[in-house]
Design brief:
mainly beta, two-stranded antiparallel sheet, 1 helix, 26% strand, elongated
Length: 298
């Protein structure tokens, strides 16, 4: 019976239909003729539970098939395939595949492709292998590409089945230079050298974190009223400043003096029997009747 499960890109291989989420056979149904029996079908990849797709990326390089740490992709349109989502775009350089200990010919001919979506038809081939791979051996393929999804497709004799005990993708997370300003240098490892005010490194896409602003988000916000976030570009506080701080960034503290007793001597002033000087500043409306002046004790 035809149908799909998971993300609707995996074929159902059960005679009486399968669960659209897990791929399990319904009504006690069995696998279609030509596909392994004796195990329930489950999960993305439409493989037996014992040899499910995630076994190829579980971090275990055990190549003894009977130990249960290998994936066993089944045919889709005559060609077994497998795919992994790396989570983010990566600059890939190599892919290492650990072959199983028996029936090594199930890895003798294959292609590797990379893309930005789970639709394998949009992937671009980055490597191909033609020829035998010894039992228990590891084949290393150069795959120079950038993408989030890596797909494997089996070709050649008995292309409907493959054995993957572990797939190791070698590379680094890819940082786009698209949003870097013209004055900034960039590479896909470290990202942009400089971001415009309000954007943060490495790719100049995300806005500054709360409490920061400016070029590369290197400046700390001042004392905005009610602890609100300052403007991520210039640091201005739209809600005004907390008491005794000057606009617009609310970073400078005003020392308002009412009389001589308000002065706090500095360490240097104590030694010289002098009082700290304050700089005259304009009196704001909410500081009415407060005189601000300089004083030095005689």
């Amino acid at each position: 019976m035809s149908g799909s499960q998971g993300w609707c890109i995996f074929p159902c291989r059960c005679t009486d239909g399968c669960n659209t989420t897990t791929g399990d056979c319904l009504h006690g149904g069995r696998c279609e003729d030509g596909y392994p029996s004796g195990y329930r079908w489950s999960g993305p990849g439409c493989q037996t539970e014992q040899y499910s797709a995630n076994k190829a990326v579980d971090g275990n390089t055990d190549q003894v098939i009977e130990h249960g740490y290998c994936a066993h992709p089944d045919a889709d349109g005559g060609h077994a395939w497998w795919m992994v989502d790396l989570g983010n775009p990566y600059s890939i350089s190599k892919v290492a595949i650990h072959n199983r200990d028996v029936r090594p010919e199930r890895l003798d001919t294959f292609t590797l492709s990379v893309g930005d979506s789970p639709d394998r038809s949009t992937h671009t081939e980055c490597a191909s292998h033609n020829g035998p791979v010894a039992a228990g051996a590891t084949v290393n393929e150069t795959c120079t590409a950038v993408g989030r999804y890596l797909s494997f497709r089996r070709d050649g004799v008995e292309a409907y089945v493959a054995g993957l005990c572990e797939v190791v993708v070698i590379g680094h997370e890819h940082i786009s230079c698209q949003e870097c300003p013209a004055i900034s240098a960039c590479n896909d490892i470290t990202g942009c050298d400089i971001c415009v005010p309000g954007k943060q490194q490495p790719d100049c896409v995300k806005e500054c974190e709360i409490g920061t602003y400016g070029k590369n988000c290197e400046e700390d916000c001042g004392h905005c009223k009610e602890n609100t976030q300052c403007d991520v570009k210039n640091g201005h506080c739209a809600t005004g400043c907390e008491t005794w701080y000057t606009p617009n960034t609310c970073k400078e503290y005003i020392h308002v003096v009412r009389d001589e007793e308000d002065y706090e001597p500095t360490a240097a002033a104590e030694n010289e029997n002098e009082y700290e000087q304050t700089t005259p500043v304009p009196v704001r409306d909410d500081y009415v009747n407060v005189n601000v002046y300089d004083m030095i004790k005689n």
